[in-house]
């Protein structure tokens, strides 16, 4: 059963065991900085992560078998690996462009 197959449970994280729900909350927190203004770019990543948790919980695997001890590292890998741009990076770049544009208009 793949995350995008539509055969997953519709109950979502509420149906997960306690340790999986705690990991889910950590995943959401670690992935949030990688979101754009609306967070829509993260929806497929959240869906895939939740699907993985649902499937492995149903198989009886322990959460540490699935995610290891580094949930932050797991999330970095999901978001595109080390060096993946965060919303702060994008906003900083946009601010720098806007300031440079204004300065060029002022002759500075």
Structural write-up:
With 108 residues, the chain is mainly α. Helices cover 59% and strands 0% of the residues. It contains 5 helices and no strands. It has helices spanning 18-31, 43-58, 63-67, 71-79, 87-106. Helix 1 runs antiparallel to helix 2 (43-58) and helix 1 (18-31) packs across helix 4 (71-79). The termini are far apart. Mean pLDDT is 80; it is low at 1-9.
Outline the fold blueprint.
Blueprint (H helix, E strand, L loop, with lengths): L17 H14 L11 H16 L4 H5 L3 H9 L7 H20 L2
- Number of H- or I-type helical stretches: 5
Given the C-alpha coordinates, what overall shape results? elongated
Number of strands: 0
> In terms of per-residue confidence, which ranges show pLDDT below 50 for 5 or more consecutive residues?
1-9
* Oligomer category: single chain
Query: Which value, in Å, is the CA radius of gyration?
Result: 18 Å
Task: Compose a concise summary of this entry.
The chain is mainly alpha-helical and 108 residues long.
Keywords summarizing the entry:
108 residues; mainly alpha; 5 helices; 0% strand; elongated
């Amino acid at each position: 059963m793949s995350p995008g197959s539509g055969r997953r449970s519709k109950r979502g994280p509420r149906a997960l065991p306690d340790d999986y729900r705690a990991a889910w909350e950590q995943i959401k927190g670690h992935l949030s900085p990688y979101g754009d203004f609306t967070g829509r770019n993260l929806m497929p990543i959240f869906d895939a992560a939740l699907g993985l948790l649902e499937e492995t919980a149903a198989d009886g695997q322990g959460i540490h078998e699935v995610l290891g001890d580094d949930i932050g590292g797991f999330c970095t890998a999901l978001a595109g690996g080390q060096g993946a741009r965060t919303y702060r990076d994008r906003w900083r770049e946009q601010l720098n462009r806007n300031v440079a544009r204004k300065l060029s208009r002022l002759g500075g």
